[in-house]
Every structure is written in structure tokens, then in C-alpha cells.
Amino acid sequence: MLTLVLPIAIGAVVLAMALNLWRMAIGPTRPDRILALDTLSINTIAVVMLLDIALGSVLYLEAALILAMMGFVGTVALCKFILSGDIIE
Amino acid sequence: MLLDLFVSVLVLLGAAFTLLGSIGLARLPDFFMRLHGPTKATTLGVGALVLASLLHVGGEAGTGGLRELAVALFLFITAPITAHLLSKAALAEERRSRSRSEIDEG
Amino acid sequence: MTRVLPRPGLSLLILGVWLILAPAPTLGQVLIGVMLAVALPLATRGFWPGEIRLRRPLVALRLLGVVLGDIVTANLLVARQVLGAPERLRPAFMDVPLGIADPFVSTLLGSIVSLTPGTVSVDIDRGRQVLQVHALHIEDPAATIALIKARYETPLKEIFGC
Predict the structure, then answer these.
(1) Residue B58: enclosing H or E segment and its boundaries?
(2) C140: containing domain
């Protein structure tokens, strides 16, 4: 069952990532691109989790944790940049 | 066997909602509408995938799956904050472009 | 107590999260965790708003259940809206008057609104005491505002007693 479902799920997440990339490329505004980048980083966590299930290991969980934190900090920094015109006030 | 079925359903649901979030991001016509997809669907989708991984692999030895739950909890806490900051940024951007066009007219 | 540990709850949370993230709960990791749990609240003291207290834990549990259920409903709704024709959606901004002055509690309300059906909070205007909300599709703004106030704001007020 799971061996049948996993390729479909990975395909769906990869398609989602392609859609994010497309939105990031066409914009049109800067917040649009940041939103696309943030969604892309969350989708990467999804891929890592699917990889965990496929390989039956927890080795990649560390990567998911770091992605979650770095993605959030990066998005906050980019938003601050737009709000104030400077990353560090 | 039953667990396998449950994990499969979670994986499919998670992937479907992840995809839905990105479809919303790609096809809705303006920024504030696009914000809804990733904020809600992607968060729940990835949350379901994390839960599926926790059930399937059984959590890291000695932590009882608390680290997997930490990833999911972190996503659910940060998603509204990201959405809030992004919409503030979008409002600022809109205001800026409007004032620029007013200067151009004058 | 107040000098060394200005926020005991926060300190406990930091220690707990550190031990979850650490590879193994050895004595060294516990020591580092305790050091962080003391140092971080002291270092960030200036950023924290006034002390808040959980007055009604049972109401908080019920609100958590309601919000978790609503997150699922929200996703089914968003799924339908995203896959339907975008021209049929009527997006709108709404102003929800805030009855909560505490910055922490109103931010909590904003976060709940963002995860629950149909709405994302855009801005919390402390001057006008208004929560600006964006809805993907709205039929009756007044009903939605009343729903947000009754479903989430009233329990929050009760929980934190403000």
C-alpha cells in the first residue's frame, strides 16, 4: 500500500514545488516572491518527511528541523527588509 | 497492516493539501488571496506528513517522537506569524507604489 | 525569584525544548539547558509585554479543541475555493473591533484567525484597537465579525481574564 502511495505523494509535492518556483519567477510583487520562497522551504520539509518514510529512518529529521527554523528566520528577515528598507535597523 | 493503511491515508492527504496550497499560490489573482493557500493548506499538509512519518518510523530512539512533534508544532506556530508579516509587507509595498504614482502625476 | 527567573514558565519551556532537541539527555545537555533557561529570559526581558496568567485552563483546552477542528474545516473550505472558479470568489478586507488590550492575547487571536476558516489577519492596529482581516470569500461581513468575536475572542478573554 505504502509503496504504491509514496511515488504519488512525492510527485504531488514536486509538482507543488514547481508551482511555487513559477510564482517566484513571475512575481509580480516582492511579497509574492517571498511567500513563494517560504512555501518552497515548507515543501522541502514535506519532501524530507516523505524520504524518512520511504527509507524508514529518522536521520533526515535534523534537516527538517533546521529547514523549518532557517526558512522562518529568512522569511522574517526578508519581510523586515521590505517594511523598513533595511535588514538590521 | 492497519497502521500501514492509516499511514498511507495520511501521506496521501498530506501531499494533496501541500499541492493544494501551491495551486492556490499559483492561480489566485491577487496577493492577499494567494496568502490563504500556503498559510492554511500547506501547514496542515506538511503537519499530516510529519505525523505519518512519526507513526511509520516510530520516532527517534529515546525521544518518543517528540522531535517530530516539535517540527509540526513549530510550523503551526510560525505559519500565522509569517502570514501576518507578509501581509504587512504587502500593505507597505502597496502604499509605497501608490505614493510614487502620486508624485509622478504631480 | 523574580530577579533570577523573571518568567518561570518561559524558562521551563526553554529547558524542555532544549532537551527535546539535544541528541541525548546527558548531564552536560541538562546543564547547558539550565544555563539557557536562566540567561534567555533575562536577556530578552525588555521585549516581553506584561505578565499574563492562565486563569481558566479548562476553557483553554476547549478553545484548543475548537481551533483544531476549525483548522480541518478551514482546509476543506480553502481546497474548494482554490479549485473552484476564481472569478466567483469575493475577497474583502474587514475591520474586527478588538476588545482585548493585552498585546500577547491579541496576537494570539490574530494567529487563531489566520489558521481558521476563510480569514487571514493582516494587521493589528493598536491605536484604533482594530484587527484587520482579509477574507478569501465573504457573503456577510457582519456575521463573520460576530462569529470571530463569539467563537475565539470571548473564550480568550475568559482564559486570560482581560
Answers:
(1) none
(2) 57-160
